[in-house]
């Protein structure tokens, strides 16, 4: 995720304003430097939007923008440290933090009576001001203009798309005919061991949509006993691919890591009956030749009529499988189907059946710019769905400068850039952040929303309001749904109605990665060990790699703010989080990391902590030191059987999720103090008959008046009489 200047700038300015009180100036003894920091930011603010736009195609502007972003990141770190020192001083005086508004930086810096800290932080502010002076002077070389601020476009409830639009990629007689013909090919003439059919076309042409329609065809579902769908990433873990194939075929891999044994188990699972194997978005022959070919061919000897269906951009891939094959090329949509697809993205206007007929002329001009690519048309339709149905608004998009922007990689369509340009600065940050979820993983609303909040992307309109904190989740949820409406993320098949989980199309993901390349890194290659050439990696995501990475390599990225780990990491006894001190978001899944737990409290800036399918058995006993921690998610960690008693002192905590942890995880007494809690999942009910167990009982949930979502476990153990006294 690349921070968006015209979103980050106002956010940092507000933080500085919170700090720049008369009391703070006096305590720091450097009131002039604080005022200068404010003035520097104010001077730069007017051309942030123009700089953000020009960085896409101008390398010199890219470098300037990165300098400014680095300065802003440093400013947020300084403000965090001031808040931490303020808390220390309040605690040392015995005063309570309960009255402090959670998430707000006020009142700041009663801390600065500490002269050592005051000198250190004052020096950092002076150094930051000097950098901003230099950055401002350099800006004159680029002739930036004031583009004004981007108005926040909140979508009303009536504009959100309903479930009938989920299948919005399916249009026209052509795809129905192709589905019927290819499905017939798969289900007739079954006197062969194994055959391959390849659907070939450029990115965004609709290959996966056609394959999904074939896969779900009634005749196909009835003809094949075993049906497997595998999305093939460009770089993949061979063991994980085999295990996934076994699971999808209805078998059990039993946690085995040995490739030979897994290959044998896949052979046995496929041998249960005639099978169809779909390999979606294949970029090379490696997955077939090195992993799947042997078990598929061996299983094919046991029954006839098996098929492998491949979607790919490569013309010769089917030939390289060495099997008998048929190749089908997808082609651009014709005008009628393209117009139909565009209209499917637009929510109907009440009382009007053909309410876009008067826009067809300009609409067909927009479609012409999309080159018949279904993805580009869908994205444009998603953008048009947020605009009034007027010829003037559609003409404005047709004439938008984004169509003529040069410098984008050739596989990235300008329609996606136009849709991106239309986003508010805050929504741009949220969209780019989604590209940190590697291909093959799901973007869960319940996970990405608190990540956005933790990174400071969500800004209610009136930050000075006493209800500032109450709107964060609601605004972030709205952003998530708007990205769906704009077809920049797509509801996953299993949540087509609820829309709580999404995926991102490969072409859209490539665009987002391109836009955030200066500071984000997604590692999915065994040759890429995370040692990026990016000077300041701010967001690091470890996806599917063939071999485990060493923890020591990750620690090279000392500026990282988001660390997402979806794969095995080798952790040594001496490893810790010590060198990753700027982290705001930490997500670890599927790796043994219990030995790292004790060093978590060194992450002083951390807001979001997520362990999933790990071996952790505890959270740090002094977790109260993690003053900014807002979200704790511990899922599928059965060895965790209790929470530390001092967790009740995390007064900023908004989310606590314990799904899939120990069946009887114990929650400490005093839990009712966490009055800022919005989401509580997996709360295990305990009966505290004698009042002396030290663990939380059901009654303590009562004071949690801010809760928006709650799931309870163990209610069957609570006698009915216990409810009578609690209304």
Plain-language structure description:
- The chain is an alpha/beta fold.
- Helix content is 38%, strand content 12%.
- The strands form 4 sheets. The protein has a 9-stranded parallel β-sheet with strand order 9-10-12-14-15-16-17-18-19, covered by helices on one side.
- Strand 3 (275-282), helix 12 and strand 4 (306-312) form a beta-alpha-beta unit.
- Helix 15 (360-369) packs parallel to helix 17.
- The longest helix is centred in the N-terminal third of the chain and has 34 residues, at 59-92.
- The radius of gyration is 28 Å and the shape is globular.
- The relative contact order is 0.08.
Quick overview:
With 727 residues, the protein is of the alpha/beta class.
Structural class: alpha/beta
Say how many strands there are: 19
Cα distance, first to last residue? 47 Å
Runs in which pLDDT lies below 50 for 5 or more consecutive residues are: 95-112, 154-166
Structure annotation, total helices? 24
- Rg over alpha carbons: 28 Å
User: What is the average of the pLDDT values?
Assistant: 82
Shape: globular
Estimate the helix proportion, in percent: 25-40%
Query: What portion of the residues fall into strands of 2 or more residues?
Result: 5-15%
Largest sheet, order of strands side by side?
Answer: 9-10-12-14-15-16-17-18-19
Report the biggest beta sheet as strand number plus sense, adding barrel if it closes.
9 strands, parallel
